[in-house]
Amino acid sequence: MVNSKTPVRISIVNDYDVVVQGLARMFEPFKDRIQVVEVSTNQPGRERVDIALIDSFAQTRDINEVLAAANAERYVFYSWSLKPELIETWSQFGVIGFLDKRLTAEELADALERIARGESGVVSSDYPSSADADLGEWPGREHGLSARESEVLALITQGLGNEEIASRTFTSINTVKTNIRTAYRKIGVDSRTRAVLWGVDHGFRPDIIKAAAPDAASD
């Protein structure tokens, strides 16, 4: 259990470098409380940390593989979807915390501190589901894509079909189709093949990078 005066040491786990780096920057104003030790894409954790914060963005790896690579005392899932079936599935593998992506950075820091002290459960947000402010970064944000449109496009780029995407994102097939239509319109394509080519050209394939957190190298 972490002492209340000791910063919580976390790693951030996702397959996209822009996602983990953006989330790490969200914690910079709270570095006296949350110490980001590693940001990890597709590689095992080198240092043991208090919490591995697993970002759900375009996550296609097996749960066991993700958790085995995250070298942590506790595991926390960070997602747009906090549906009971998702929570039940990840809980069976030892994940004890589930945090809503609509939480502000300060709310996220508060929740991680409580989890590090031994609490568990689900922390959701009252913010509207369309709000993208203060949610870090994701591929395609600079092209006007919302976080969820980008996630669907990333999964398309990885070769998943609509049913698989709905399953991975815990959304309905109609929601997936809506996100596809709006994403296609924003990036100016009219077919899945062209969407994949656009995604490959614009960083929508998973990265394979292991890096220290932004400030860790100088600490």
From TrEMBL:
Query: Could you name the domain of life of the organism this protein comes from?
Result: Bacteria
Name the GO terms of the biological process aspect: regulation of DNA-templated transcription
Q: Return the CDD domains for the record.
A: LuxR_C_like
| Family matches, as InterPro entries | CheY-like_superfamily, Sig_transdc_resp-reg_C-effctor, Tscrpt_reg_LuxR_C, WalR-like
SMART domains referenced in this protein's UniProt entry, alphabetically: HTH_LUXR
Q: Its Gene Ontology molecular function terms?
A: DNA binding
List the protein's name.
Answer: Helix-turn-helix transcriptional regulator
Organism of origin is Aeromicrobium chenweiae
